[in-house]
Amino acid sequence: MASKVIHALYTDDDVLMDAVKKVRAEHYHIEEVFCPFPVHGLDKAMGIPHTRLAITSFMYGCVGLTVAILMMNYIMIEDWPQDIGGKPSFSYIENMPAFVPIMFELTVFFAAHLMVITFYMRSRLWPFKKAENPDVRTTDDHFLMEVDAGNHDVNKLTSLLGDTGAVEIKVIDKEEDNH
Amino acid sequence: MYTLSNRLRLFSVILMVVGLVGLVIGFAQRPGSIEEVKERMAAHDAHGGGHGEAAVQAEGHHGEEDAHGGDAHYEHVLHQLQNKPWAALYVAAFFFFMIALGVLAFYAIQFASQAGWSPVLFRVMEAITAYLVPGGLILFVILALSGFHVNHLFVWADPEVVAHDALIQGKTSWLNSWGFIIRAAIFLGGWLLYRHFAVKYSRKQDEDSEGNKWYKKSFKISAGFLVFFIYTESMMSWDWIMSFDPHWFSTLFGWYVFASLFVSGITTIALITIYLKSKGYMEFVNNSHIHDLAKFMFGISIFWTYLWFSQFMLIWYSNIPEEVTYFITRIEDYRLPFFGMLVMNFIFPLLVLMNSDFKRVNWFVVMAGIVILCGHYIDVYNMVMPATVGESWFIGISEISAVLLFLGLFLFVVFRALTKAPLLAKGNPYLEESKHFHY
Question: Is A136 exposed, middle or buried (CB count within 10 Å of its CB: 0-12, 13-18, 19+)?
C-alpha cells in the first residue's frame, strides 16, 4: 500500500527534541527518528513505551545464576568431588563461598550476552542486513524525523516542520512497508 | 527557610531523655560480682524449662571436671556483661557519627567532581554534617575513656593483658593509649576543620557569587580533604573498630568501613530529603534526584557486599587459625545478626531497588533506606560486640536506649542546622543544571 511520509532533517539534537514535542503536540504521528547517536530523553518525547529489555536482562541473569549453581554442583560435588584446601567436598552449601565468583560471573555473562542478542533480534539486526535509514547523513551529523502524512494536509505539515527548524524537508511516497 | 516544628523538637528531646534514662538503667543493671551472674543465669535457666535442665546438667558435668574452670567461666561472663552497656553506647555513638562522616565524604566528592545534579541537595548534606561536631566530641570522650582503660572495651588498653600477650606487645608502638587518643584528635580535627570551611564557603558563595571565588575555594579544600580523608578514614577504622580484635587484621578493613559509612550517609540524605519534600519544602528537588540517590544506595550496597565477601572468602578459604577465628566467632555466636545483616544490606536493597521505576517511588526508597540503616547498625554491632561481650550478647535495654539517645541527638542537631540557612544554595554555579536535572 502506498503511503506518504515526510522526512525532515535537523542538525542539532536540542532542536530535534523541541521539534518532536511540537509535532506530537499537533497530533501528527512520528514514524521514526534516525540519529547518529543516542539522544537522551528522545524515547520519552516520542511517546515510545518503556523498554522491557531490563526485565529480560533480569531473567537472563537468573538463568545464568541457575546454570552456575547446577554446573558447579555437578563438576565439584557430584561428578568428581575435589578436595581443595581441605574444604568438605560432598556438600554444595558448605563450599558455596568458593563458587560465588563463578555464580557472579555467569550471572553477568548470561545477562549481558543474551540481552545484546535480544536487542539485536528485537531491532531486526543481523549480519549483512541492509541498512534501514533513509538518508546516509543520519550516520554522520544529521537527524531525520519521519512523519506519517496520512490524510493530513501536506503543505500545512511541511510548513510546521519548517517552523521547528528543519534544514531540509522531503515528501516521500513509500511503495511498500518494509517494517 | 526551614523552621523546626515543635513536634519534631519535642520528639527528638523525648528520644534523648528516654535513651538517657534507659542507658542509666543499663549501666545500673550491670552485675557487680560472680554471685550475681550465677543468680541471673540460674534464673534464666529456670525460665527456659527443658532447655535449662540440659544446660544445668552440662554445667554440673563441667563443674565435676574442674571446679575452678566453672568459676572462671562466670568471671568471664561477668566481664562481658559489665562491658555490655559500654559497647552498646559505643556502637550507637559510632553508627550515627559514621552517617555524618559518610555524608561529609559524599559532599566533598560532589565538589571535587563538580557534579551538576546534586547542588539542590547541598543544604541537606551540610545540615547532616553538623552532627559531626557534637557526635565527634561524644565519640572522642568515649574513645578517651576506653583508650585509658576506664572501661574494658579495648583489651590492648589493659596493661595486665598486654604484659602476657606477645602479639599485642609487638603492636604497642601503634596501639597505645596516647597514640590512640592523639590520632583520634587529628582525625576528628581534620574532618571538623574541613566541615567548618566547606560550610562557610558555601554560605559565602550565596552572598557573593561574583566570579565564583568561594566556589573555587570549596573545590580546592574538597579535593584536599578527600586525600586526607581516605588515609585517616582507613586508620580510623583500624583504631576504632579493628583494634577490638588486636590479634586479627584485614588489609581491606578501611574500605569495608568506608562502604558502610558511605551507604548509610547517602541513605540518610535520601530519607531527610524525602521527609522535607513531604512537608512541602524543597520543591526544586524532583524525582530524578531521588532516583540518583537511590542508584547510589543500590550501587554502594553492592559495593559493600563485594568488600564484605572479598574479606570473608579469602579468610574462609585459607582457613588460617589466627585469621579465621574472627569469622568462626561470628558464625557460631552471632549467626542471626551475621547472616541477617547480609540479607538486609545486600539481598533486600538488590531486589527492591533494582527496578528503575521503583527508585522514583518515595515510599520504596524510604522502606529500603530504613532496612539499609538497620542493616548497617547491625554491621557495626557485629564488628564491635564479639570482641567486647562475646557470646553474652542480646539486644537489650542498653542497645535500644543508646540508639534512641543518639537518634534523638542526631535529629535535633540536623534539623536545627537545617534552619540556619536557606534550603537552596543559590550561589552555586551548577544550580540551574541541578534544578533542571532529569533522567
Answer: exposed
Which pLDDT value is given to residue B232?
Answer: 96
Q: What are phi and psi of B78, to 5 degrees?
A: -55, -45
Q: What is the pTM of this model?
A: 0.87
B288: chain A residues, CB-CB within 8 Å: none
Q: What is the pLDDT of residues B221-247, one digit of tens each?
A: 999 999 999 999 999 999 999 999 999
Nearest CA in chain B to A88: B317
Residue range B19-37: average pLDDT? 88
Q: What is the pLDDT of residues A52-83, one digit of tens each?
A: 898 999 999 999 999 999 999 999 889 988 87
Contact (Cβ atoms closer than 8 angstroms) between residue B409 and residue B12: yes
- Which residues in B lie closer than 8 A to residue A97 (C-beta atoms)? 309, 312-313, 316-317
B316's CB contacts (< 8 A; 6+ apart) are A97, B324, B327
Q: How far apart are CA A117 and CA B325, in angstroms?
A: 47
Contact between residue B430 and residue B119 where contact means Cβ atoms under 8 Å apart:
yes
Q: Specify the long-range contacts of residues B57-64, CB closer than 8 Å, at least 24 apart.
A: none
Predicted confidence (pLDDT) at residue B317 exceeds the cutoff of 60? yes
- ipTM for the predicted complex comes to 0.78
The answer to whether residue B71 scores a pLDDT higher than 60 is: yes
Q: In degrees, to the nearest 5, what angle opens at C-alpha B180 toward C-alphas B176 and B182?
A: 125
**Binary contact (B313, A54; C-beta < 8 A):** no
CA distances (Å), A172 to each of A3, A148, B392, in order?
A: 8, 10, 82
A54 touches chain B (CB under 8 A): yes
pLDDT on residue A2: 58
User: Which of B11-15, B39-43, B369-373, B415-419 is least confident?
Assistant: B39-43
Q: Which of B317, B331, B436 to mutate to test the interface with A (most CBs of A within 10 A)?
A: B317
Comparing A174 with B297, the larger pLDDT belongs to: B297
Distance from CA of B304 to the nearest CA of A (A): 15
DSSP state of A51: P
In sequence order, the 6+-apart residues with CB closer than 8 A to the CB of B164 are none
Residue B317 near chain A (CB below 8 Å): yes
Q: How many residues does chain A have?
A: 179
Q: Which residues of A touch B317 (CB under 8 A)?
A: 85, 87, 97-98
Average the pLDDT over B294-317 and give the result.
95
Q: Count how many pairs of residues, chain A against chain B, have C-beta atoms within 8 Å.
A: 19
A41 contacts B313? CB cut-off 8 A: no
CB A100 within 8 A of CB B313: yes
Query: Cα dist. B202→A112, B246, B253 in Å?
Result: 43, 41, 33
DSSP for B261-278, written as a single string:
HHHHHHHHHHHHHHHHHH
Output the pLDDT for position B54: 43
